[in-house]
Amino acid sequence: MSIEIVLVEPEIPQNTGNIARTCVATGIKLHLVEPLGFLITEKAVKRAGLDYWFDTDITIWKNIDEFMQKNAGKAMFYATTKADKTYASIEYPDNCMVLFGKETKGLPESMLEAHKERCIRIPMLYDTRSLNLSNSVAIITYEYLRQKNFDGMEEASSYTINL
């Protein structure tokens, strides 16, 4: 039972590093679909992912066609600012994937049109263009985990802070 995050042609290494860290902290798989706007070995990706980068369960795909062909039949949702449904208004099935587009353009319009019933959005004020990609991934990831009662997640910190 898990969600998997798919970044289609991500452009900003710091976002991808932050998302990798979220994936490690939640035990979920990350997919990167090329072309990427950076090299995986770049210092910025490693710095943003800190010591978590090499612990990430990650698959890199050559292009969106390869990804879609190999993952045909899996439940997929498409994050976009143009959806009617919100990320919190749907019930996520076990073992689903959420696709996020590149920071400057989002997912291809043709993909959104072909899967309109599976498009989801995060509510924002009307004249706001979009949220940061790593924030969007975290919001939707934690909604999935909340719906699954945070199964397998640590409920309390193992240390105490005295205030």
What is the fold's blueprint, element by element?
Elements lengths: L2 E6 L4 H14 L2 E5 L9 H7 L8 E4 L2 H7 L4 E5 L5 E2 L9 E5 L8 H6 L4 E3 L11 H15 L16
Parallel strand pairs: 1-2, 1-6, 2-3, 4-6, 4-7, 5-7
Helix pairs in contact: 1-2, 1-5
Describe this structure in words.
The chain is of the alpha/beta class and 163 residues long. It has a single domain (3-147), classed as SPOUT methyltransferase, trefoil knot domain (Alpha/beta knot, 3-Layer(aba) Sandwich), CATH 3.40.1280.10. The chain has five helices and seven strands. It has helices at residues 13-26, 43-49, 64-70, 109-114, 133-147, and strands at 3-8, 29-33, 58-61, 75-79, 85-86, 96-100, 119-121. Strands 3-2-1-6-4-7-5 form a seven-stranded parallel sheet. α1 packs parallel to α5 (133-147). The radius of gyration is 16 Å and the shape is globular. The chain starts with a strand and ends in a 16-residue tail after the last helix.
